[in-house]
């Protein structure tokens, strides 16, 4: 069964391993009959700075951020590729989330006091594809998977996108012989299956 899949490559460089992974996923998904939209954050033009405290006052969204939200709203499955830098995601990707994931569009904060905001993007699943130089065991043991908890729980689940499955590729700066080919094949299989 075909799905509507939105892929966001969150690496801010024009060329990167994350771009290659996003394109491998997209190519395999299209070949399998899925509808695919792909965005590279490097090509998006917007101010990543929220600029204000709270949500009482927000800047108008630039066309790139409106398109980002429209693509997520269109999708049944969202794929996000990103490198882990300093334990988190790149600033431009975080800025896109800060700016675009607003109340009334991605969550409803008009709930009784003490209740969690209501997610407005329910009914979508996600795949998080992370690259890092940190080994997975170290990320888990020492950092307690902080980036995964942030992305899966504090961002995607908060707005209703769940479940979120995670693919993690480490030694990204100095992969062994054939390792990148294996990673590309892996995400190609995920794209083919639409998961």
Give keywords.
globular, oxidoreductase activity, 195 residues, Rossmann fold, alpha/beta, 22% strand, two-stranded antiparallel sheet
What composes the largest sheet? 5 strands, parallel
CATH topology value: Rossmann fold
Pattern of helices and strands: EHEHEHEEEHHEH
Report the top-level CATH class.
Answer: Alpha Beta
Beta-strand content bin: 15-25%
**How many individual β-strands?**
7
The first-to-last residue Cα distance is: 12 Å
**Regions with pLDDT < 50 over 5+ consecutive residues?**
none
Q: Give the proportion of residues in helices.
A: 25-40%
> What is the 3D form?
globular
Q: Mean pLDDT score, rounded?
A: 95
Structural class: alpha/beta
Give the full name of the CATH homologous superfamily.
Answer: Flavodoxin domain
Q: Return Rg in Å.
A: 17 Å
| Strand adjacency order, main sheet | 2-1-3-6-7
Q: Could you say what the CATH architecture is?
A: 3-Layer(aba) Sandwich
Task: Write down the domain tally.
Answer: 1
What is the overall number of helices? 6
Description:
The protein is an alpha/beta fold and 195 residues long. The protein has a single domain (4-193), classed as Flavodoxin domain (Rossmann fold, 3-Layer(aba) Sandwich), CATH 3.40.50.360. It is 36% helix and 22% strand. The chain is built from six helices and seven strands. It has helices spanning 17-31, 63-74, 91-100, 136-141, 146-157, 179-193, and strands at residues 4-9, 35-40, 77-83, 107-108, 118-119, 124-132, 161-170. The strands form two sheets. Strands 2-1-3-6-7 form a five-stranded parallel sheet, sandwiched between helices. The chain starts with a strand and ends with a helix. The relative contact order is 0.19.
């Amino acid at each position: 069964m075909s799905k509507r899949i939105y892929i966001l490559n969150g690496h801010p460089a024009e060329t990167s391993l994350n771009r290659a992974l996003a394109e491998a996923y997209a190519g395999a998904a299209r070949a399998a009959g899925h509808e695919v939209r792909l965005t590279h954050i490097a090509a998006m033009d917007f101010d990543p700075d929220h600029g204000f405290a709270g949500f009482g006052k927000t800047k108008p969204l630039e066309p790139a951020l409106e398109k980002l939200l429209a693509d997520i709203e269109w999708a049944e499955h969202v794929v996000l590729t990103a490198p882990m830098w300093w334990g988190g995601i790149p600033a431009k990707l975080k800025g896109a989330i800060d700016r675009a994931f607003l109340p009334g569009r991605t969550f409803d904060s008009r709930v009784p006091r003490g209740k969690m905001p209501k997610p407005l993007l329910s009914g979508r699943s996600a795949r998080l594809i992370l690259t890092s130089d940190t080994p997975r065991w170290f990320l888990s043991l020492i950092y307690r998977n902080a980036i995964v908890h942030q992305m899966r729980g504090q961002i995607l689940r908060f707005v209703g996108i769940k479940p979120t499955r995670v693919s993690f590729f480490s030694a990204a700066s100095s992969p062994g012989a054939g390792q990148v080919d294996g990673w590309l094949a892996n995400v190609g299989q995920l794209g083919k299956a639409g998961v």
